[in-house]
Amino acid sequence: MTDKINIMFLGDIVGKTGRLAVRDYIASLREKNSLPDFIIANVENASHGFGLTQKNYNELLEYGVNAFTSGNHIWDKKEIFQYIDEADKLVRPINYPKGTHGTGYRIFETEKAKIGVINVLGRTFMGLIDSPWEILNETIEKIKQETPVILIDIHAEATAEKICMAKYYAKMGISCIFGTHTHVQTADEKILEEGCAYITDAGFCGDINGVIGMEYESSVNRLITNIPDRLDVANSGEGQVNGVIAAVDVLTGKSESITRINTTNISEEIMIMKG
């Protein structure tokens, strides 16, 4: 019998609707005594769709999220520079230049195992960023000295880039590789041959009736006029939660299963927001 740790990863949280949907989903799991051992969420869009405030960081911790990954939008709220160096549950992409505030990986302690969490930005169709390959190789070897349980959030636009990186790093013994950024959940969850749980994009947590979490009217107006109209977070009153749960052997670091999460909820508080 193997010792397993259940790790839940939630796709990009978008705005207040996303935060409340995550809160209610975690609470429902807690009520059913089916809470996973460790919960990770991508939070680069958690504060009104752009960036992360310290208030929302603390709020999500209170809801039960244990660790946070991010992406290119993590810098959108300028207050991030005031607290990111002390935010010991938050990871920003590792392939920003040396000297960038925050850290690109952390090792988290749980009752069952230590978990290494790495965040990385892709480069295809994204902004200019340092190459991830060399620094990822070095970081993985460093984490392996402490734990075989390692998760990577690849925040990238191109599916081919995510798949290539997953195949490459799965061979280095990574436990889980989950894609983020597009906010559209893919249906390709699998265990790669090396025992790595994988999905190209975990999806997002937010308003199900908007456009990847944002309000439809301003989104379509941007496409029709090509004028960069302000995007607002959608608020129809119906939230969704996307993500995955992986069961990982704590001794080998190999994943034994991966289950996709795709659920909706309508909380009273979300409906009050709508009204």
Explain how this protein is built.
- It is a single chain.
- With about 280 residues, the protein is α/β, with parallel strands linked by helices.
- It contains 7 helices and 13 strands.
- Helix 4 links the parallel strand 6 and strand 7.
Uncertain residue ranges: 270-275
Q: Approximately what portion of the residues adopt beta-strand conformation?
A: 25-35%
Whole-number count of domains: 1
The CATH architecture can be named as 4-Layer Sandwich
The number of helices is 7
Along the chain, the helix and strand elements come as EEHEHEHEEHEHEEEEHEEH
Largest sheet properties? 7 strands, mixed
Provide the gyration radius in Å.
Answer: 18 Å
Provide the helix percentage.
25-40%
CATH class: Alpha Beta
Q: Structural class, from secondary structure content? A: alpha/beta
Strands, total number: 13
